Amino acid sequence: MHRILREAGEVRERRRHATHPPRKRPELMADGPGQVWSWDITKLRGPGKGVWYSLYVIIDIYSRYVPGYLVAPD
C-alpha cells in the first residue's frame, strides 16, 4: 500500500509545521573612520596556573584602528 501511495504522490507529512520568514541579518556600512565601531572579548592566560585575564577591545570597522582596550582580571 505504501509503495502505491508513494507512486501516486499521496505520502506526505501530515503534521503542521511552523514556517517562519527568513530573517535578514543587519549589515553595517561605514564611509569613513569613526562611524561604526565593533568590539571583541578575548581570554588571556596569566602568569600562574588558573590565572586568566579578559581583553576587551573596541575596533573601528572602517580603518581597523583600535581606539580603546581594557585588560581586566577574571
- Radius of gyration, Cα only, in angstroms? 26 Å
> Rough shape?
elongated
Counting copies of identical and different chains, the oligomeric state is: single chain
Number of helices: 1
Strand content of the residues, in percent? 25-35%
How many strands appear in the DSSP assignment?
Answer: 3
Helix content: under 10%
Structural class: mainly beta
Give the averaged pLDDT, no decimals.
91
Instruction: Write the H/E string, N to C.
Output: HEEE
Low-confidence stretches: none
Largest sheet: 3 strands, antiparallel
Strand order of the largest sheet: 1-2-3
Distance between the termini: 65 Å
Describe this structure in words.
With 74 residues, the protein is mainly beta. It has a domain at 34-74. 8% of the residues lie in helices and 32% in strands. The chain is built from 1 helix and 3 strands, in the order αβββ. It has one helix at 2-7, and strands at 37-45, 52-60, 68-73. Strands 1-2-3 form a 3-stranded antiparallel sheet, with no helix packed on it. A hairpin with a 6-residue loop joins strand 1 and strand 2.
